[in-house]
Specification:
The chain is of the alpha/beta class. The protein contains eight helices and seven strands, in the order E-H-E-H-H-H-E-H-H-E-H-E-E-E-H. The chain has a single domain, classed as Rossmann fold. Strands 1, 2, 3, 4, 5, 6 and 7 form a seven-stranded mixed beta sheet that branches. Strand 1, helix 1 and strand 2 form a beta-alpha-beta unit.
Length: 187
């Protein structure tokens, strides 16, 4: 059975959706949960960090990696066959596009890419059609990076926001493991 890394960033309003996807993947894959420091340590109006940690660990059947040191060996030790970033914030997207590795999630991605394995981005960003747009475009043109198809979630109230269709994560993973991007990217 293949192993998927499942890295979660601080798009707190979409963490429940992300955990639903984690649950949906556990029958087909082994799962390796990774959390950014913000998700691992921040309580918000969307939930307590300890509750998200507990749910992720229960679904994956193993402890959440939450430090850069813990995430670094993922690629070289082949701890995962692919890395999912779900949800991926505009901040993390931008760091990935610029090669900045200062969080457990960015290290997990770097570690995965450096051994030529796929990374699947499940974006949830309020500025994806603004400041983060160039970074999304850069990553769409990066070898072994695949995007879960996305669309504007509220074009009137949030005209610069894009959110992945979380229900397409499984299909996107299957395509990425075959070396192809699920199409169309924008829906």
């Amino acid at each position: 059975m293949q192993t998927l890394g499942f890295a979660m960033c601080g798009s707190f309003c979409t963490l429940d959706k992300a955990l639903e996807q984690l649950a949906g993947l556990r029958d087909r894959y082994e799962l390796l949960p990774v959390m950014s420091q913000n998700v691992y340590g921040t309580d918000t109006r969307f939930g307590k960090a300890s509750d998200f940690i507990e749910r992720a660990e229960e679904l994956a059947g193993r402890r959440v990696l939450h430090t850069i040191v813990e995430a670094e060996p993922i690629g070289p030790k082949h701890l995962a066959d692919a890395m999912i970033v779900c949800p991926c914030t505009g901040n993390t997207l931008s760091k990935l596009a610029l090669g900045i590795t200062d969080t457990p999630v960015t290290m997990a991605v770097k570690s995965t890419l450096r051994v030529g394995l796929p990374v699947i981005i499940c974006l949830a960003s309020n500025d994806a059609i603004a400041a983060s747009g160039q970074n999304a475009a850069r990553l769409m043109n990066t070898k072994n990076v695949y995007f879960v198809p996305l669309s504007q979630d509220d074009p009137v109230k949030k005209p610069f926001s894009l959110v992945a269709d979380f229900s397409l994560l499984g299909e996107t993973v299957e395509a990425a493991l075959e070396g192809r991007q699920l199409q169309p990217i924008y829906r």
